Each structure stands twice: as structure tokens, then as C-alpha cells.
Amino acid sequence: MTYTKLPYHRLENKSDLDSLIEDIGDSRIVMLGEASHGTSDYYSWRTAISKRLIEEKGFTFIAVEGDWPDCFQINKFIKGYCKPGTKVSDILKHFNRWPTWMWGNWEVAALVEWLKEHNDHPNSLPVGFYGLDVYSLWDSLQRIMKYLEKRDGQALKAAKEAFKCFEPYSSDPQEYARAVAYVSEDCEQDVLSLLMELGKHEGGEPSNPEAVFDAEQNALVAVNAERYYKAMIRGGGSSWNVRDEHMMETLNRLLEFHGPDSKVIIWEHNTHIGDARFTDMARAGMVNIGQLAREQYGNDSVYLVGFGSYEGSVIAGSNWGAPMQKMEMPPAKEGSWEHWLHSLSPTNKLLFSHELKEIPEARQQIGHRAIGVVYNANHESNGNYVPTLIPERYDAFLYIDESEALRPFIVKTKEKEPPELYPANE
Questions:
Q1: Number of CB atoms found within 10 A of residue 307's CB
Q2: Residues 332, 342 contacting (CB under 8 angstroms)
Q3: CA angle 389, 237, 221 (to 5 degrees)
Q4: PANTHER family recorded for this chain (predicted)?
Q5: Which listed site, 273, 374, 414, 421, has its alpha carbon 20 to 30 Å from 359?
């Protein structure tokens, strides 16, 4: 196959990001993707980009594809709210739900340490760190109870009623979802009542507004997680949309909380941040946070950066809940986006969509590699390539020719979520 030459820029060191920072311009929302949840290079380059956006463009917070309660522990740590002597490794051990390596790794530890140092500087505006995801149903309910135990009133009563409703299911979201998926008697009204009661107490703790926001967000997670698990059991693409719509709702709340001048950096998989309208997801009626943000804030305010690589190694599990392992990632299949970029030259590259749009071949749907938390290299060609109109899905693309696996911590898994939670290529 003959590959048309593409316009690209070299990507060897941090200074090569100058053109990307310039192209981002005045965007308020910058989303940084990844083609797998287990590749060190994606985390390292996202860290380098995030540092520059914070230092040079005043970005206010980072929001990631992680659970709210666990990520809020990072937020407290980098803002100096944890007890003296707390180490970053202590904080990242909170990420004990499989797949633990997504946030419990040395690459994230380095970012968290840098954020804390940045916030400790007397001339720096504090930067936050938050989770956008929806999985932490029981953890969120427990954090609400802990928060409300310090105060009396209807909110505490509502929290107890919500928790009581879930007790028969032994903290197993899949068991709960199966029990209520096809009947009307469920816990939805209890968690909605909890959310409404918490909303009445917004001014209750003005000295620490983030504590109030944290309680309200945990209640919102409980509401949407309850809906998510039921939709998951019923099947179809509705659970995906519940999840990404929750992420977008959380993003909107965070931007409003931080004020009209706030700016956010988002770390998520390409399947979330790359505009779904320009993939085969659209035919299935699926949306994602990249699409929703463009629709709500406009293309000029949202900047989407995709990531990918040709070959290397990756951290993943051979099946759902399996021990993590370092796996070899074979060369991308012929005809794919990654194979095209490798064929041009075996070097790292930075590409901009406004330049790619001038190339007719780039304006066709191309197979674009996507690896999830479960991976089998022998079956890769059957489901690890997403048909994509690259120049429309992203605003820029970072290509790594040979990538290295993430460096994870060893964290004991608290529980195994059902395999339906992550699609095979996300």
C-alpha cells in the first residue's frame, strides 16, 4: 500500500510542544487522550503538556477518567489538606478498584508531586485535581454519611434512607442492577431525595466550600451510578451515554464552581475525548464528553488531543479482573492510522488537524488503534481499531512510534467491577 505524505512536526523533547501550546491558544477546555490505559509515554507527554498549560496559560484544574472519591484525595493532598507526613504513595493506594494501575502508578505520582510543589509556591494559584467517572456508588454514599455525621437535619436522614435501600445488595452494584433492572421498585428515589436535601445546604460551610461541593458531587455520583448500573444490565449503548453524560455534568459543575475564568485539562481515553460523531460510535447512538463539550462550549473553546503508537509494550489484563501484566503490543495492522504514520518514518510526530484537512486521504475513515484494560494481542485486529475521521475527531494528534508500558504500583484490589464497565477498546 502506498501512503500519502502527511504534514507533521517532530516530537522529541518538551520544546517540541511549543507549536501545540500555541495552537491551543485561548481554549478553555483541553482534553488529552490516550490509546490505552497502560502506556507510560501517554502519561508522560500529558504531564508535560499539563505543566505548560498550568504555568503558561493559567489552567485551573485537571479532571480525569477516575472515581470522584479517590481523585478528591489527590485534590486534598496537593492543596495541603492531608495530615503531615502523608506521602503520595499513601494517596494513590486509594485507587484499589481494578484496574488499579490506571492511577496507581509512578507516572501519576510524579504529576501529583509536581502539583503539590506548584500549589505550595506562595505566588501560585492553587490547581485542583478531580475525578469525572461514575463507578463509585458505595464509596460515594459512605463519604456522604461521613460528611453528614458532623451535622444534624434532613440531609443526614435522607442519606441513611438511601444507604438502607442498598444494604440488601452487599455493596455489589451488579447484584443491585440485576435485581432492579426490570422492576420499578429500586433506590433511585432515595438517592434523588438525598441529592435534593444536600442542595439545600450549599451555604452551610462557607469556610470550606469544597467540602460542600464534595458532598454534593458524591450524591450526584450516587444518582447517576444507580442509573448506570441498571442501564448496563439492560444492555445496549445507553449505559455508555449515562456515563459520559455524567462526566459532562461533572465538568460543567466544576467549571461553574471555579468561576468564569477557570480552565480545565482533561485526561481520558481517546474513546471519550475524541469527538464521537466522527467514529462508528455515532451509528450506535453513542456520545462522549469530547462531542458534548464541543456542542455546549463551541469548537473554539474546546481543544481535543488524540494519542497513539505503532508498537511497544502495555500494561493490561488478559481478562476482566486478571492480574495486570506487561504485554507486547505488536506493530499496528496495515491500513491503520498508526501504520500510515510509521510508514512515513519511524519517528515520533505531532500533527495538527488544520493541516491534515488538506490531505484527501486523511479525510476518510481510517482504522485507529484503541486498547482497553483487557487486551489480547492475538485478537487485536478483530476489535482494537475504531474507524475514525482523524482531522475531525481531534484538533491535534501525538504519535509515539515505539511506546513503553506504564510503571504501576502494586495495590491490593478491593473489588472487581463487572466486565461490562469498560468496552474492550476503552
A1: 26
A2: yes
A3: 105
A4: ESTERASE, PUTATIVE (AFU_ORTHOLOGUE AFUA_1G05850)-RELATED
A5: 273
The residue with cell 523533547 is: 13
Q: Retrieve residue 423's grid coordinates.
A: 468496552
Angle at 134 between CA 267 and CA 321, to 5 degrees: 85
Q: For 353, how many CA atoms within 13 A lie in the half-sphere containing its CB?
A: 19
| Region of 259 on the Ramachandran plot (φ > 0 left; ψ -120 to 50 alpha; else beta) | left
Residues 6+ away with beta carbon under 8 Å from 71: 64, 103, 129, 130, 131
User: Nearest-CA neighbor of 219 among 186, 185, 264, 253?
Assistant: 253
Cell representation of residue 280: 462508528
- The HSE-up count of residue 181 (CA atoms within 13 Å, CB side) is 16
Q: Is the pTM of this model over 0.85?
A: yes
Spatial separation of the C-alpha atoms in residues 89 and 114, rounded to whole Å: 14
Find all residues with CB under 8 Å of 83, minimum gap 6, and list them.
Answer: none
Gap between the Cα atoms of 283 and 314, Å rounded: 30
Domains and CATH numbers, the chain: 9-133+263-421 (3.40.1660.10), 134-236 (1.20.1440)
Number of other residues whose CB lies within 10 A of the CB of residue 56: 10
- Residues forming a β-bridge with 326: 315
pLDDT digits (tens, 9 = 90+) for 296-352: 999 999 999 999 999 999 999 998 889 999 999 999 999 999 999 999 999 999 999
Q: Are 20 and 303 in contact (CB under 8 A)?
A: no
